[in-house]
Description:
Blueprint: H1 2-17, E1 21-24, E2 33-36, E3 48-52, E4 57-61, E5 72-76, E6 91-101, E7 106-113, E8 128-135, E9 143-146, H2 154-160, E10 174-180, E11 189-201, H3 206-265, H4 275-286, E12 292-299, H5 302-309, H6 311-327, E13 334-339, E14 342-348, H7 352-368, E15 381-388, H8 394-410, E16 416-418
Helix pairs in contact: 1-3, 5-6
The site of guanosine-5'-triphosphate has 16 residues, from strand 12, helix 5 and helix 6.
Amino acid sequence: MIAALALSLLAILGLEFMPDRQLDLLAPGAVHNLFLASPAPAGAGSPVQWVDARRRHWRCHYTAPAPYEPCGITLMLSGKDPARGVDLTRLRTLELDLAYRGSSPHVRVAIRNFDTRFSRAEDANSPRIHTIHLRSRDVQQPVVLDLAELTVPEWWIAQYNLPREFNRARLDNATSITIDLPSELAGHEQDLELRRLVLRGDWFNRDVAYLAVVCAWMLGAAAIAVHRGTALRRRYRSQQREIDALTARTSALREEQDRLRRLATIDELTGVLNRRGLEAALEDLESQPQGVALVLLDIDHFKRINDRWGHTAGDEVLRRVAAIVAANLRARDVIGRWGGEEFLIACQGQHVEDAAHLAEKLRESIESSCIDAKGRFGITASFGVALAPPGTSAQRAFKRADAALYRAKSAGRNRVEVDTAHDAATTL
Ligand SMILES: Nc1nc2c(ncn2[C@@H]2O[C@H](COP(=O)(O)OP(=O)(O)OP(=O)(O)O)[C@@H](O)[C@H]2O)c(=O)[nH]1
């Protein structure tokens, strides 16, 4: 940025303080030809004579009035090709130092510009002429003309009768510069010496140069904006990728956490809730307004199965009992293994009679099921049923269900005992 500022400053300073382009038309080789205008071929009898051609010093002396009294010097800017001149559009001034002694009140400066749209090589007057008349006394000392002061004279416009746009002053192909005297000269001697004729101006179009500086800045700014935009987009994409990766990782972790939580609350052997899962479920149910009926199931003489048929058979019995119970429950009922061969069923919003009925149904199913796949033995289970009405402790209801179960065991097993002394009502 600092370098760009410094460069711009340098460019502006260069534009402002760069030395002018200078075209010294009297320097050797600066023009292709330089000659005096004369009514007759130059010679001893001509009224126009060089005094010192090297110093561009000449004299005119017309003794009697004549229709054509030229007394001037022409510098040819075009070479062999008369249609090919010099572009003066970027030159601003013309410095003229002319020593003149004579009778003409004015000195004329004329520049011809060849325009291919209408100028003809065979017609020396057809290149558009641009003139200015200077008072003779004003050219006693060096004078600086602005080229914009030169205008296309009416006589030339009238003579060629061209469309308006062709009559505008324009020096893009100047072919000659003439310094002469526009007045009648007869009877007086005219003495002229052209000492200096210099064109000055810019090397290039300043407006374009300033525009180039502004464009360079705009391009630079656009390039920086595009670069920053690209970098920002890249950064955004990379951050987006990181966010996506983090989101994926978070959801994977959440899934893993859910899986572990499930595992922590599920009984590995039977696939139903374990004691921790049951406790959490009971806590949840306790807070519900409907109350909950509890059914405690204990397999009868389970130890014997283990002892007789082995632990694997015992495990299989536990799995089958869990499956039988699960198959008989509603979607919102909960089953879990409380421990050993004991299962707890929690039925939300159910009457104690319905719970007892469910227990009876389960009892029959277990008794009638062929629990051992090999058909070696059957099993029975005892049930204790209790109700935790809305707003009462499920824990206390559990104790009552356990007591009812104990009664069922004591009464000979394979039976359902219902707690009747629960906290509030016997039914929901
Ligand atoms: N196979 C197997 N046995 C288990 C498991 N958990 C506990 N047990 C066994 O279950 C038996 C429970 O025996 P007890 O508490 O005497 O009860 P029971 O034999 O069913 O007698 P009652 O309940 O009075 O009818 C014990 O032998 C435990 O080792 C288990 O996950 N798998």
